Amino acid sequence: PRMRIDVVTIFPDYLAPLGLSLPGKAQESGLLQVAVHDLRQWTTDRHRTVDDTPYGGGAGMVMRPEPWGEALDHCLDRGPNPAGGAVLVVPTPSGERFTQRVAEELAAEQHLVFACGRYEGIDQRVLDDAADRGPVREISLGDYVLNGGEVAALAVIEAVVRLLPGFMGNPASLVEESHSDGLLEYPTYTKPQVWRGREVPEVLRSGDHARIASWRHEQARARTAVRRPDLLPAVHALSVEGLGALE
Ligand code: ADE
């Protein structure tokens, strides 16, 4: 396969959607190979314990290093090209922000291993040990807290897999989409021409491709200025003409 993905979690059922839709199709086509592993298979005690209280005190539990060490020894060596080296991806609210650029970087890899921990975290020595052997990316979906890394891993995997060359039917739809030009996407319309009294903007029916392109660019810019001014150079964010249509 072009890419191998291993996911280690205490909730393997949470990753069931990987067999559906996009990653499912990529696996059928042989482009992608995904394996989900239950962390508890690498526990050795009778109660299959994966967490313990934090040194130094505080709320919540921390994931113990021993099962993670065994799990990552197993997964990090199992790629199509063991010498090439896997990238360990650790979803955590204290990671670097996940962006389209990070998705593109991960899509260039041959082997990704996701370590899904609960949000209080995995014993830091697990990540330090893995970092001695290869690249580790601690990644945050955004400034909010999920209960564990599973949903974040699903989001990252979907964003990465759809970028694999030979997967998407239409490469132009990748180039044109939101975020590749640094602006939010312009609004889109399809038939019928009038729906519930609302008409599709005239310019889109004009056949004038230059006018359509500049209308779309202006809509994208105005929408970005209102919703995501942080994405614009300061001078553009200050400009407010054309915002009426957005409320
Ligand atoms: N795990 C818990 N919260 C998360 C977040 N915001 N992003 C990635 N992983 C997480």
Automatic annotation (TrEMBL):
Chemical reaction(s) catalysed: guanosine(37) in tRNA + S-adenosyl-L-methionine = N(1)-methylguanosine(37) in tRNA + S-adenosyl-L-homocysteine + H(+)
Main location: cytoplasm
EC number(s) recorded for this UniProt protein: 2.1.1.228
Binding site for S-adenosyl-L-methionine: G117, L141, G142, D143, Y144, V145, L146
Class of this enzyme: transferase
Gene Ontology molecular function, alphabetical: tRNA (guanine(37)-N1)-methyltransferase activity
UniProtKB keywords: Cytoplasm, Methyltransferase, S-adenosyl-L-methionine, Transferase, tRNA processing
UniProt keyword Membrane present: no
Subcellular location: Cytoplasm
Domain of life: Bacteria
Gene Ontology biological process terms, A to Z: methylation
Subunit structure: Homodimer.
Functional note: Specifically methylates guanosine-37 in various tRNAs.
Family from the record: Belongs to the RNA methyltransferase TrmD family.
Name of this chain's protein: tRNA (guanine-N(1)-)-methyltransferase
Upper classification of the organism: Bacteria, Bacillati, Actinomycetota, Actinomycetes, Propionibacteriales
Residues of the full protein shown: 8 to 254 of 374
